[in-house]
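Q: What structure does this chain adopt?
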Amino acid sequence: MNYDLNGAPPAIPIGSTVLVTGISGYIGSHVADQLLQAGYRVRGTVRDESKGKLVRELFAEKYGDDRIETVIVADMAQAGAFDEACKGVTGVAHVASDMSFSADPNKVIPSVIAGAINVASSAAKEPSIKRFVYTSSSTAILMPRLNEEFTISTDQWDDEAVAKAWAPPPYEPDRAFPVYAASKTQAEQEMWKFAREKKPGFVLNAVLPNYNLGTVLSDKLSISSGAAVRRVYETGEVGVVAQRLGPQWMVDVQDTARLHVAALVDPDVENQRILAFAHPFNWNDVLACLRKLAPDRSWADDMEGLGRDLSKLDNRPGAELLRKFGRSGWTSMEESVKNNAGL
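A:
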């Protein structure tokens, strides 16, 4: 196992099977990859067999076809959707979510909550399941604020996003991000409520990543936030990307995945909201990294007026968990950009 438990046994046995929902996504595929590296078997949920085939081919080539399997869950909001998927596993990483960015809260939030509670309910039926990690989001605490100093802590919830998401219609496009943030906020809140009230046989943790950059495991799978750096690399400028994505914190997607593994295997990590915030950045910083990495390329000038995310937070707990993997802490932004661009 590539994680230092200081002689203690892992919370779930090495070689046992872990369920990863949304395994064909950017984060989900990396969670599976890190679990396989750590010596676990992985069962992943996909929405259709075409995605399942791609996932199995990717990981079977690296780890052998006896270490990876997929099951189809076409609608995670359907009651009992995860009953079969949870049978015989020891841990669950619920990564799947609605990434449609619809502006209508009725089309997003109830299904995200239902999906999370469905997985938790199925997991609670299985006495073999001892650990559950929920992939939340930085936006479950607060949406980014431009050029404003404020403090982020794990005691906070994004009530502002919830209020904006559920305000009366019309549902204009600028509501899409608050709806996404509210879905992560309310689903995570319901997960902690489930743990308090139902008292399942598993320990619940949550990982709250900000903007993920870094290695893309396969171009055939969803790369989500990993697409933006590639666009900047291909075009040589940040205009289109910077207009859609403001300054915030970044985290390497492999670090996000490692924190999921820590939440599943570390006996000392219990009932925690783990912040996955590595470095604050704007898109001029990405451009600066690319200029350094590819000095012979022609690059546009910095874009004026991007501003900064001035939020303050304590990201040392996450860095300490990463050191148990033999890492020095958070992956640098330059390394993440390099890997994301395929350099």
